[in-house]
Design a protein that fits this description.
Elements: E1 58-63, H1 65-68, H2 80-87, E2 93-98, H3 115-121, E3 129-133, H4 136-140, H5 145-161, E4 165-168, H6 186-190
Parallel strand pairs: 1-2, 1-3, 3-4
Length: 196
């Protein structure tokens, strides 16, 4: 990092990060992995890739707290990406690049993707599909649907240029009502009437 830059900080971590205690020394010869048992939001290793002899379909998921697994029990393997790997019996690898609170809008100058797309989503070798699960925090921050869609379309174009499959998750409703259309708003007036 250049002087004055800060390392990415993940304020919530519900999976053991694979860190050692500070001052542990050289533990690279540990076959058991036991020294790497610390949960940390501020000590990080960007990635370690172990590539199989035969390619395995790999999905890179760029997401927010829903992907990150916010509030799930520590090391429970209960994130939806963990469940996806389990359900496919290892026939699919799901790389979880979820960060609680993250947004797809206002993270980079117009026409550019947030920096972590290049460093997280596009960096791993062997990715065959990219999924975006974002938008809820953008809505909470006041971003318009058009702004969110523009960023998703920009990401789709970059993924297409890499000849990878692109998947967009539905932005789920928020418990705080911020994804609901306000009665009396222009969007409410334009929405089709619901029938019981």
């Amino acid at each position: 990092l250049a002087q004055g830059d800060s390392a990415p900080w993940h304020y919530w971590s519900n999976q053991t990060s694979g860190c050692t205690l500070a001052g542990a020394g050289d533990t690279t010869t540990s076959a058991s992995g036991l020294p790497f048992n610390q949960n940390s939001e501020d000590r990080w290793l960007s990635e370690v890739q172990v590539l199989p002899a035969a390619p395995v379909p790999t999905l890179a998921v760029y997401g927010d707290s829903i992907t990150d697994g916010l509030f799930l029990p520590l090391n429970s393997g209960a994130r939806w990406t963990d469940q996806l790997e389990t359900e496919t019996n290892g026939r699919l690898v799901a790389l979880n690049f979820g960060v609680a609170g993250d947004r797809i809008t206002d993270q980079a100058p117009p026409g550019q993707l947030p920096p972590r797309v290049a460093t997280d989503v596009f960096a791993p070798v062997g990715v065959s599909a990219v999924m975006v699960e974002m938008g809820s925090n953008d809505i909470k921050a006041g971003a318009s649907a058009a702004d969110i869609l523009a960023e998703i379309q920009l990401l789709a174009a970059k993924v297409a240029a890499k000849h990878e499959t692109f998947i967009v998750a539905t932005v789920p409703g928020r418990g705080d009502g911020l994804t609901a259309v306000a009665p009396g708003s222009a969007a409410h007036a334009a929405a089709p009437a619901r029938r019981s």
